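Feature request, filed as a ticket because there's no other form

It would be nice if the structure record came with a short human-readable summary line next to the C-alpha cells. Right now we just get the raw output. Example of a typical job, pasted below so the devs can see what we mean:
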Amino acid sequence: MATLDDLKSSLIEIRSQLRDKQKERERYLAIASDIDAIYQRLAEDKKIIKGYRDSVKDFSREAYDDFKGNLYKNSYKNSVSEIVDNYNKVISNIDANMDALNMQIASYENKASRCFGLIGSFESAVNSLVHRIENWVN
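Raw output as currently delivered:
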C-alpha cells in the first residue's frame, strides 16, 4: 500500500505532467493563431481583388459612345477579358493557399486538442470536419 509520501510525490508528478501538457497545448494554439492571422489577411486580400475584378467586369459591360470604330469591340474588350481571367487565376491561387493554411490551422488545433486525451480526440475529429467544410465553401 502506498504511503502518504508516495501519494504526494505522485500528485506532484501528475501536476507537473499536466502543466507540461498545458504548455504544449498553448504552443500549438499560438502557432495556429499566427497562421490564422495570415489566413485572415489573405481573406481580406481576396475580397479586395474580387472587388477589383468585379469593377473591371462592370466597366467592360458599360456602353461607351465615345469610342469610334471597332477598336473597342475588337481590341479593348478582349484585353479586359484577359484581365478578368488573370484576376480569376489570382483568386484561385489565393483560395488554394487559404485552404492549405486552414488545414495547417486545423492540424495545430487538433494537436492542442489531443493534449486532453480521449475527449480531445473527439474534439479533434469535429474540428477537422469543420475545417474541411470551411475549405469547401471558401
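Something like this underneath would help us a lot:
DSSP finds three helices and no strands in the chain.
Helices lie at 4-61, 71-114, 118-137.
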